[in-house]
């Protein structure tokens, strides 16, 4: 289901703002996957913006755990079995997909 909000009649639409925030987060994630952005920049942005999204508390908890692991993994110069940057970024992509579904429901 797609929700459309007309700001002319309803003022600023929180859903549009949330989806725009999530879009910016996803763009940062993709840039990080391409090596164009450092993981530390991604985690800083995501930590600030996850809390602004109108999602159930569990989403924030899961995102925080993934971001903590990404931060810890950034301390290693190579992929480690505990902190695979590629797998953590894939998990964040899945989180963003689920968050988008939640926001659109």
Q: Order of SSEs, N→C?
A: HHHHH
Terminal Cα span: 6 Å
Principal-axes geometry comes out as globular
Structural class by sheet pairing and helices: mainly alpha
Whole-angstrom Rg: 15 Å
- Assign a percent range to the helix content: 55-70%
Tally of helical runs: 5
DSSP strand content: under 5%
Tally of structural domains: 1
Average pLDDT, rounded to a whole number, is 83
* Low-confidence segments: 1-13
Biggest sheet descriptor: none
Overall number of strands? 0
In short:
With 105 residues, the protein is an all-alpha fold.
What labels would you give this structure?
105 residues; mainly alpha; 5 helices; globular; disordered N terminus
What report would you give on this structure?
The protein is an all-alpha fold and 105 residues long. It has one domain. Helix content is 70%, strand content 0%. The protein has 5 helices and no strands. It has helices at residues 7-10, 14-33, 39-50, 57-73, 85-104. α3 packs antiparallel against α4 (57-73). It is globular. The termini are close together. Residues 1-13 have low confidence and may be disordered.
SSE inventory with pairings:
Blueprint: H1 7-10, H2 14-33, H3 39-50, H4 57-73, H5 85-104
């Amino acid at each position: 289901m797609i929700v459309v909000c007309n700001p002319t009649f309803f003022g600023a639409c929180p859903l549009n703002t949330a989806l725009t925030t999530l879009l910016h987060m996803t763009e940062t994630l993709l840039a990080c996957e391409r090596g164009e952005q450092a993981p530390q920049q991604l985690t800083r942005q995501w930590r600030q913006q996850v809390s602004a999204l109108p999602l159930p508390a569990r989403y924030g908890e899961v995102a925080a755990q993934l971001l903590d692991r990404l931060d810890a993994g950034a301390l290693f110069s190579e992929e480690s079995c505990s902190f695979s940057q590629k797998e953590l970024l894939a998990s964040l992509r899945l989180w963003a997909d689920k968050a988008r579904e939640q926001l659109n429901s």
